[in-house]
Please model this.
Amino acid sequence: MVRTRVVQTLFAFYKDQDKTATSVRSELRKSFADTYDLYFILLDFANELTAYAQTQMEDQITRARATHSKWQPNRRFVQNRLAQQLFDNRALRARIAEQHLAWDSGAAAVSSVYRQLVESEFYKQYMEAETCTYEDDKRLWRQIYQHLLPENEQFYDALEEMEVVLDKSNWTVDADVIISYVIKTVKRFKEDSTPETPLLEMFDNEDELRFAVDLLDKAIAGHERYEQLVNSHLKGWDADRIAYMDRIILEVALAEILEFEQIPLTISLNEYIELAKEYSGDKSYMFINGILTEILRDLTHEGSFIKGYTLK
Model:
């Protein structure tokens, strides 16, 4: 996530000539905060979906009374203990209130996911089971986040609209990753968890934020050098036809490899190859891997120190 955000920020920086290094550094910090808000609003989706289900059930009760029908509501889902814990969580409620986060513009997604939910086999099994443990309650929400949300187009459309309304960035791009963080959070809850139960931090530690800012600064400062290194190793490739995102990934990768000696080379290479698979062309990761390998080999031949690199 840290390297991805640096690449995205640098991409926007070079595309907009009015940006300065200072302003883009501020944008990087804001983008992390925006992603953290996405984490909270996705956690709060449990409250929104539960509230919607409660409304649907109340409507059915009203219709049953009006027609003098005998209908006994199944309250298992609306009384789900994990959802109640999330609703009561003080850190979640505080962030939602402070940042004015709301699903108002995403109401259509809530109803769409609910329709998808009630038709799913895992929901039917949950509702029809003779008994329901706290672990059953947790499992249901893991399945909702893992299987329903990633498959629902209206859900992503809603995030896109909310991103604009709430002045956030990269919500749709980051959604799959943040959903995995939400699932990790759900797994951490226990039956005796209190409203003070801590949620995940924006960073594992402050070193991650410092690393992100330092990497961005070094990539900008070394831009001309990294651009020249890339151009001199294209060997048959037309420099003007190289995807711009590939160039940015290569430059950030070189900044990390050449400037952060404490990070093992294999980690750096793997991170940027995976990033290319996710955000660039189908075969970009092979191109990026090849260019980086050639640059490292030549720098080593020239006597430059390359951490952990073995000549082949």
Summary: Residues 3 and 212 are 7 Å apart (CA to CA). The chain has two domains: 36-188, 222-301. The domain at 222-301 is CATH 1.10.940.10 (N-utilizing Substance Protein B Homolog; Chain A). The chain is about 70% helix and 0% strand.
